[in-house]
Amino acid sequence: LSKLPSEAHFWGRSNPYTLKNWREGPDLASVEGCIALKTDMDEFLKQQSKDDEVGLVLLQGLSSTDWAASLSVNTLSAGIIAEALSKTAVAQDRQLSVSLIGSLASYCGRKMPYATAKSALVGLMHSLNNAFSPNVRANLIVPGAFPSAMTADWSDEKAREIGRGTFRRRLSQPGEVVAAIEFATKNNYIVDSVINMSGQRIF
To answer: Can you give the pTM of this predicted structure?
Structure first.
């Protein structure tokens, strides 16, 4: 959750990039964990100045063949958090930007539970915009593969092979994904849009 323009706060299971203003978040594989994080983030939002637009970036992800865990982490947590903070934005008459993070698995059908859970974010995006406009605008960013905890178990050869199939002949970089998030967050005329960052590769 970032308060524009320069101050950002992060919740997560770990902090590999030693981010400033990072807080350890609960396990999102359970409903209780989703609700606990929603409550913490909602309280944070209520403490912010109503004059500032706040950007909510839901960068959670679990690539798993476990249906319950995949739906809880990738769909349920996003829905619970985004809906709660959107209701607060309307109650406070403030502006909230929501950036959902999808996956190419939704297009190529890899790992059925994961692909299904990430595909549901399209419906969540449309629903947030329909229910909470004009206070809330939501967008969906679909990144290609980039170095992260989800690709940490890839061999060098697998990473090179997937990278060679993209327009730039390499994997995406975290900074490029961040730039897309910033674009969607800061441009308040971008709404209900799916931003494709696949690098022209569906694998």
So the answer is: 0.85
